[in-house]
Amino acid sequence: MKIATYNVNGVNGRLPVLLRWLNQTTPDVVCLQELKAPQEKFPEQAIADAGYQAIWHGQKSWNGVAILTRNLQIKEIGRALPGDPEDMHSRYIEAVVNGIHIGCLYLPNGNPAPGPKFDYKLQWFERLKSHAASLLAAGTPVVLTGDYNVMPTELDVYKPERWLDDALFRPETRAAFKDLVDQGWTDAIRKLYPSQKIYTFWDYFRDAYGRDAGLRIDHFLLSPQLDGRLLAAGVDRNVRGWEKTSDHAPVWIELAD
After folding, report:
1. Which domains, ranges and CATH numbers included, belong to the chain?
2. Is 106 noted as a catalytic residue in this protein?
3. Which of 27, 79, 85, 137 lies in disulfide reach of 2, CB 3.0 to 4.6 Å?
């Protein structure tokens, strides 16, 4: 079973890129972030024509998350992260696919930091940790994946000294991610590639992709029930080099049945 995550950075504007990638790689499950489309503008028919059914939680102009499946039934569980009924951001959607709970998330950026946006990021992280703990306690197989907007270690960022005051790399953010993982989750990429430089995002400016000046901010966290089923993981880095593409590349894992 191949599961992928992709911050598409505008599902309609990048639709040709998304469809091309789906056609080439045919993952079984795809988690998308940053749809930047209201609920009624999601390209459901084009996705269906590509062989995928979808659930999605859209939002006008920004945010938005979706889960796509190919030849697998999908049962939606929820489309908001518990803990703050006043939070209207479309940043989380959860479903059961093939016996696996899949949470697709788009964690807040948090810049500028310090400030209200950074406070919101940390509050969202606390809600995520609480929900993640409840998922672990249930004892079912879980994948929590998406754009976490966190570089967990210096290995995950090009020239880390330049990012010390950024919300994605501040000590509070990295500590929150570590607390989450320490609940009992497996960082899939780091399990298979513990010391390798791997990036999932390259800025559009200053030829970041060409210079490989990247960040690893898109992550797969696996519950203990899935740790032993992890067969492979990787980044489709070449997609970042396509015309009119997202600033993120798709990330994927393969799980044994």
Report:
1. 2-255 (3.60.10.10)
2. yes
3. 27
